[in-house]
Amino acid sequence: MLRYLEPFPYEPQRRSSSNLKMISVIIIFMLVISGGLLMLLPLGDLFGPTSGSVKVAVIDSGIDIDYSLQGRVANQTSFVLSEYGYLVEDTTLTDSAPDGSVHGTVVAKEIASLSSNAIIVNAKILGPSGTATTSALIAAIRWSVEMNCSVINLSPSCRCNSTC
Fold first, then answer.
1. Measured between alpha carbons, how far is residue 61 from residues 83, 123, 164 in Å?
2. CATH topology for 54-160?
3. What's the CA gap between 25 and 101, in Å, rounded?
4. Residue 39 and residue 42: Cα distance in Å, rounded?
5. In this predicted model, what pLDDT tens digit does every residue of 79-116 receive, in sequence order?
């Protein structure tokens, strides 16, 4: 006597979706944690060291160095000399404050506050009268280039007593 055995009907086992949900939660959690850790890192640490400092020449009325500019001014010189056509010499490096405005100091502080990598170079060409000579301006630009300045700031408050 032969018995015919019928195979059991194939019923695929249902996989528990709770395992997939758990894996998804773990992946999302890891992404959130790793993203949060990246936000805590300074960008310099993430992308390597910064390229270094940038010298910025401020060709203006001079600079009054206070605590906010302490250690940020590398080189200074005054071009308010008779050899550049001034009637009255001003060899000081502080702000001459033409028209009562310490414009050179304000410009230097703004540059220093905008960039922690900026090193200020003070090239004074404006005396108390607020005027500059063309030869002093040219000499200040040349000197700034010799000082390896990458940026030269010529302020609009600079008024030359001859054609610039």
1. 18, 8, 17
2. Rossmann fold (3.40.50)
3. 62
4. 8
5. 999 999 999 999 999 888 888 888 899 999 999 988 88
